[in-house]
Design brief:
Elements: H1 6-22, H2 29-36, H3 40-50, E1 57-58, E2 64-65, H4 76-85, H5 94-102, H6 119-130, E3 133-139, E4 142-154, E5 157-164, E6 167-172, E7 176-185, H7 190-198, E8 209-216, H8 220-225, E9 233-237, E10 241-248, H9 251-260, E11 265-269, H10 271-288
């Protein structure tokens, strides 16, 4: 297997930054430099030179953003030339960029490509989304027929947004088995596209429950300044504690947050999930002995 070259990493970084801009994210030079393991000068060069034609702006806090994400699609040839220059393939190969330029709704919300376990399935899902192909999958030991709309990553876990029986739902990517891309195509539902455009809460299902978290210590300010949970609401705040409410569809949504921010975050409700988190931590500690 060919190891990634400097050119590969450059193209991957540029494409990922493009996706983040397209998804209306804002970020600083220092954040990107730390994330990609490069200098702030390199990130400055990426933004001002390699992506300079996009008229990227900077807000009052020094975070970069693009006012009109639709402008990205007008520079298709620039991205294709960049790919050709470094002979780079993978998920964002030339044909993928070609289809991206023609697709109204881009299928991916950013998370590093390297975190995807099965690149083949990921690529096929991207194509199914772009070409509006119906897919059949095994999910939780049940055969399902889905109309895929978008791939989103939250706290290092990938999810597929798709409709099943005309109801939009969220499917954890690691639970999707035996993915089959059908020849049959489907038409986008305007109401679903509107929900995706708003992008307020991508964990969608028929049943959602309220969950309460307690945040303490060093992570209080972090939770105040970042939207870690979908629809998170601050219930109470003191000098040493922050109580947050959110609506969840899957246990993994909350557990991934707790385990990421141990020991500063714990579940208060629902009680069953609080007990489950304690059980998992206890089992892990026993495993380490």
């Amino acid at each position: 297997m060919r190891l990634p070259s400097t050119g590969d990493l450059l193209v991957e970084r540029i494409i990922e930054i493009l996706i983040r801009l397209y998804n209306k994210e804002r970020f600083s030079k220092s954040e990107l430099a730390l994330e990609y393991g490069v200098s702030e000068r390199t990130i400055q060069r990426d933004i001002m030179q390699r992506l300079g034609h996009l008229s990227i702006a900077k807000d009052k806090s020094g975070r970069y953003y693009i006012k009109d994400s639709k402008i990205l699609k007008t520079y298709k040839n620039d991205y294709i030339n960049l790919l050709k220059k470094y002979h780079w393939g993978g998920v964002f190969a030339i044909d993928f960029i070609e289809n991206f330029s023609e697709s109204k709704y881009f299928p991916i919300k950013f998370q590093p490509i390297s975190e995807v376990c099965n690149m083949s399935d990921f690529t096929n899902l991207c194509r199914a989304i772009i070409f509006q192909k119906i897919i059949k999958v095994n999910y939780d030991n049940k055969l399902r027929t889905l109309k895929p709309y978008k791939l989103i990553s939250h706290l290092s876990t990938w999810y597929l947004l798709a409709t099943e029986d005309d109801i939009i739902k969220t499917f954890a990517l690691y639970k999707l088995k035996s993915i089959n891309i059908c020849k049959d195509e489907f038409s986008h539902d305007k109401k679903v596209l509107e929900e995706l455009e708003n992008d307020n809460d991508f964990f969608t299902s028929c049943d959602r429950i309220e969950a309460i978290l307690e945040v303490s210590g060093l992570k209080i300010e972090y939770f105040l300044n970042h939207k870690i949970l979908a629809n998170q609401k601050i219930i109470n705040k003191t000098d040493d504690k922050l109580i947050i409410s959110t609506m969840i569809s899957y246990d993994d949504e909350l557990l991934s947050v707790v385990f990421r921010f141990i020991p500063y975050v714990k579940i208060l409700a629902p009680k069953e999930l609080a007990l489950e988190s304690k059980k998992i931590v206890k089992e892990y500690l026993e495993y380490l002995k």
